[in-house]
Every structure is written in structure tokens, then in C-alpha cells.
């Protein structure tokens, strides 16, 4: 049982009970639709009069619709309730240093429209570009009511929406949340990409209901870690919990954008794999896989070369996987999650990476810890789906009450 924080609490009112009952009803309908009002009353334990009032409110707000009529031995035939997934829209934003991807989705995380553009060099430029995207989406889908904006980003934000730490983004500290809300005129939820991915697994993943301890590791330009423990995201002091990517592996290692040297992400990220490959070329150990006039190598190129049997690319991927496994083993031993998910382009090479990671975890942890390490499906777009989850949890999750 959690201790009440007497320095920061909310007194329960009659509105608190109504809000909790509403979210319970909405969540049950989401999970068990189609269902009748009577079924909802039985599953929730709420009185039928309370259920009727809540359902009518949800219908009036456009969250719930009535569908087919069921059969009944006697009395009125029930009308089945469904979520109105076509009405409530969520703008999902995957903000990354090179490219920003934006999608329009329903509360079921199914995308109806997507676009992408180069990430602007400043928060103001980013907000302006996002405004243009919102206008285009609204014009194309006038029937959709935007309920909010979820932004997953490569850094940490505090409760006020201030960007506190995002070395790979290069923006410095900025009041990103207030900027976006004032510019877009919509409620905005910002979260570290790895934490958003953890939420996405919690809301939309295929894990059993009893999974309450889950860690998500995002592998991209850097490495992020999201912590969902006891069913709650862990943010820590100053919202900095989860920055395992900046734990020093070697004090004499490569310089990191955070200002230190030899951070974990300098050994196990996409950028690290590209560096490994270029180092083998410079040493003349393998034939070059790209001409001097070609554009800069990307991680996708390394994956493609490895699939084609390029020895340098294979070595780079294997080395990246080795260090990824070392870091994952530390998370497994330190946190003992039920599930640890890996998100990122590296999952496209999991047939090669997975066994190496599994071997490192096995060698460096104890058998009593049985964490299941699994890749996410790239087709589900975990980071973008995580941005959807940020808004979904505000409507379907338990309210923050003392």
C-alpha cells in the first residue's frame, strides 16, 4: 500500500468518485465490447442506475455508441455498447533527432493517416511544423475529434512539460509542453520514448494481464530505458529515472553527447554499429561496402549489408549485440522485470542479435530471474504507438487520487 504524500495530495470529492466510475466503465467497455448495460453493471459492480447515467454521458460525449440489439428471455432487449473508435482521434508524434513522424490514430492505436518530415533545429520550428500537420490531418478527416496529442521524444521531461535532458536532440532545456499546447490549442502529453513504448506494451501489447513489471529498451541514435514497475511508470527525481544509456561502460571510451565518455549507448546503439563498420573499413580489414561518393552510412545500410553477407557489417552487428546484451543483463539483474522488450530497427535483425543478447543475459544473471526478453514488432511502430498510449491512459487509466 502506498503512503499518502502529505506534501502533494488531492482531497477526494464527489466528483472523484464519478470520475473513477466513468473511467472504470469506459475501460471495461474497451476491454469487453460489445456488451450490454446489464453486463457492464455485473462486471463493474456498479448499480444499474449509475451505469445508465455513465453510459448516457459517454454516448453524449461521443466515446460510446450503441450497436446491435441482443435477445432477452423477457423484458427489454439490450443494446450492445461499443467504443466509438472512429470519432475520438489521437495525434501521435514520434520526435527523433533526424526525422519526426506524425500519425492520426483512434483509441485502438490503429493509424488512419501518417506523415514524416525532417526534425527542425529548434522547438519553435518544430511547433510550427506540427501546426501545419494538424491542419492537414483535420482537413482530411473532418469527422474525427482530436482528444489530445502524445509526443514520444529522445529525452526526459518534467511534470510541467519542460524538456530537461535530450543530448541527442540538441535543443537544450525548453518548455516544450506549454509551447505545444498554446500553439496547437490541444492538451499535450510528453514522455520519454522508452517510457512511452513501455506504456504501449501495457495498453496494446499481447502480454498476460498479470504483467505489471515491464522494462522497455529503445535502441536508436542512443539508448533509452522505460520502467513500468508495479503497473506504474517510474520517473525518479527530476524525471531522470531510466537513463541507463548514459551509464559509463569505459571512462576512456568514445565521447558522448551528454558530455561524458564511454556511455552504454556509445557501444550498443545504431550509431555505435555504424562506427564499428567504418572502423573496420578504415583499418582495411574488409572490403568497403560503400563508395566514397555515397551518402553517409545509416544503420539501415548496415543491416542490409549484413543480410547480404558483408563481413564488416556482420561483425558490427554482432559487436553491438554483445554490448546490448551486457546492458540488458544489468537491467534484468537489477530490476527483475517479468518482460523486457526491445524496440528499434535492430529488431529487424533479431535472428542474429537475439541469440547473442540471450547468451550475455544468461551468462551474467542468475537462473532464479526468469525475465522474458522479446523484440517488438517493427510493423507496430512502437514509438508512435507509445505516443498514442500517452493520451489513452489519460482517459482509460486510474485517476491520480490520494
Describe the structure.
By secondary structure, the chain is α/β, with parallel strands linked by helices. 40% of the residues lie in helices and 19% in strands. The strands form four sheets. It has a five-stranded mixed β-sheet with strand order 5-4-3-6-9, with helices on both faces. Strands 12-11-10-13-14 form a five-stranded mixed β-sheet, with helices on both faces. A hairpin with a 5-residue loop joins strand 7 and strand 8. Helix 8 packs antiparallel against helix 10. The chain is globular. The mean pLDDT is 89.
Q: State the share of residues found in helices, binned by percent.
A: 40-55%
CATH topology grouping of the largest domain? Nucleotidyltransferase, domain 5
**Helix and strand string, N-terminal first?**
HHHEEEEEHEEEHEHEEEHHHHEHEH
How much is the average pLDDT? Answer: 89
CATH H-level superfamily of the largest domain: ATPase, nucleotide binding domain
Amino acid at each position: 500500500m502506498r503512503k499518502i504524500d502529505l506534501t502533494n495530495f488531492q482531497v477526494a470529492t464527489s466528483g472523484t468518485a464519478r470520475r473513477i466510475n466513468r473511467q472504470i466503465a469506459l475501460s471495461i467497455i474497451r476491454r469487453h465490447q460489445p456488451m450490454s448495460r446489464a453486463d457492464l453493471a455485473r462486471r463493474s459492480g456498479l448499480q444499474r442506475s449509475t451505469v445508465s447515467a455513465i453510459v448516457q454521458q459517454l454516448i453524449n460525449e461521443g466515446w460510446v455508441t450503441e450497436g446491435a440489439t441482443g435477445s432477452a428471455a423477457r423484458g427489454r432487449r439490450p443494446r450492445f455498447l461499443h467504443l466509438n473508435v472512429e470519432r475520438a482521434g489521437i495525434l501521435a508524434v514520434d520526435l527523433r533527432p533526424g526525422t519526426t513522424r506524425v500519425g492520426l490514430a483512434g483509441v485502438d492505436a490503429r493509424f488512419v493517416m501518417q506523415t514524416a518530415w525532417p526534425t527542425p533545429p529548434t522547438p519553435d520550428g518544430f511547433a510550427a511544423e506540427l501546426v501545419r500537420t494538424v491542419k492537414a490531418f483535420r482537413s482530411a478527416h473532418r469527422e474525427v475529434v482530436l482528444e489530445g496529442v502524445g509526443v514520444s521524444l529522445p529525452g526526459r521531461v518534467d511534470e510541467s512539460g519542460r524538456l530537461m535532458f535530450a543530448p541527442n536532440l540538441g535543443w537544450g532545456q525548453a518548455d516544450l509542453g506549454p509551447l505545444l499546447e498554446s500553439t496547437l490549442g490541444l492538451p499535450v502529453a510528453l514522455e520519454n520514448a522508452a517510457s512511452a513504448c513501455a506504456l504501449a506494451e501495457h495498453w496494446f501489447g499481447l502480454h498476460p494481464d498479470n504483467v505489471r513489471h515491464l522494462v522497455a529498451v529503445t535502441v536508436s541514435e542512443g539508448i533509452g530505458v522505460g520502467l513500468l514497475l508495479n503497473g506504474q511508470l517510474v520517473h525518479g527525481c527530476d524525471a531522470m529515472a531510466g537513463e541507463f544509456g548514459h551509464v559509463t561502460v569505459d571512462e576512456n571510451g568514445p565521447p558522448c553527447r551528454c558530455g561524458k565518455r564511454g556511455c552504454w549507448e556509445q557501444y550498443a546503439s545504431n550509431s555505435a554499429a555504424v562506427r564499428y563498420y567504418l572502423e573496420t573499413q578504415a583499418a582495411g580489414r574488409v572490403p568497403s561496402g560503400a563508395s566514397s561518393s555515397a551518402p553517409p552510412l545509416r544503420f539501415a545500410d548496415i543491416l542490409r549489408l549484413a543480410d547480404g553477407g558483408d563481413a564488416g557489417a556482420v561483425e558490427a552487428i554482432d559487436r553491438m549485440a554483445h554490448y546490448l546484451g551486457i546492458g540488458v543483463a544489468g537491467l534484468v539483474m537489477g530490476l527483475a522485470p517479468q518482460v523486457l522488450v526491445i524496440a528499434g530497427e535492430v529488431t529487424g535483425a533479431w535472428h542474429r542479435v537475439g541469440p547473442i543478447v540471450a547468451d550475455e543475459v544468461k551468462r551474467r544473471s542468475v537462473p532464479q530471474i526468469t525475465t522474458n526478453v522479446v523484440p517488438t514488432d517493427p510493423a507496430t511502430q512502437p514509438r508512435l504507438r507509445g505516443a498514442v498510449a500517452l493520451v489513452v491512459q489519460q482517459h482509460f487509466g486510474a485517476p491520480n487520487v490520494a
